[in-house]
Amino acid sequence: MPRPPSPEARERFDRLAETPLRSIGATVGSRPRDIITPVREIFRQREMLDLLVRRDLKARYKDSTLGFFWSLARPLLQLAIYFVVVGQFLGAARGIPDFAVYIFAGLTAMGLFTDIVVGGTSSILANTGLVKKVYVPREVFPLASVGSAIFNFVIQLVVLLLATFLVGRPPLHAQLLYFVPALLVIVIWGTALALLFAALNVYLRDVQYLVEVGTMLLFWATPVLYSWQMVRELVHTDWIVELYTANPLTLAVIGFQHAFWVAGDDVLQPSHMLLRLLAAIVVGLIALFFCHRAFLRLQGNFAQEL
After folding, report:
1. pTM
2. Fewer CB within 10 Å, N or C, the chain?
């Protein structure tokens, strides 16, 4: 027969029975408290988020001699290939002045978006051990991918600025202000999609491969290697041109070109660009809200699925 518990053990059991249960993790609801609490939890874990960003950056370039300079290898190689093949062999450079700066501005914008979405999609799976053993707001893992992508973006941005000085056309003009809303469009929409795809990827592992294909299609669906004016001249249907222009990435890429491509100041561009960018930011914030709510609904079974 098992021995009855001691008085000390009984006292501990009684105290545990009287302790109210507190749910761990964010709840999904329509009350203001249910909306603010997840954001507050992420803010409380900002040191953890900083550590994850540092860890991702160190792990990516661990035991590498050149370190962070490897983050420039892919965009510089893409720039060289596109400049020679598309610009020179196919003749695109003849219709676009300072073609190298034009391409690199678009590559910098699209590179940031791709790094955020692709890195964020696989972030939960890449941190399976932490998800199973330690409770932190699950959003910190996609957000850490956003942080590391922004760090690499800053390095590429410095190279872009140097390139503008090398061609003798530094972006010392009023259009440089387009950089801020264009950057916000990329970060907001990229973060929204990263949260959504990160949650879906836990349940359906094919999502990460679909995302890679989708970002490749988006690259060719934005005016990086060709100009918006070319699309307008080839497509004579106004609503198709407007639909193409309404793509947030199209607006963001054009915004980057407005900011850094001084030779394009006299080139025809979409009208009311600032208003279009602000509209994309507002719609992006709404998308971010709903993608975050979807993430919160799906995160409950992350540990079991992993």
Report:
1. 0.84
2. N
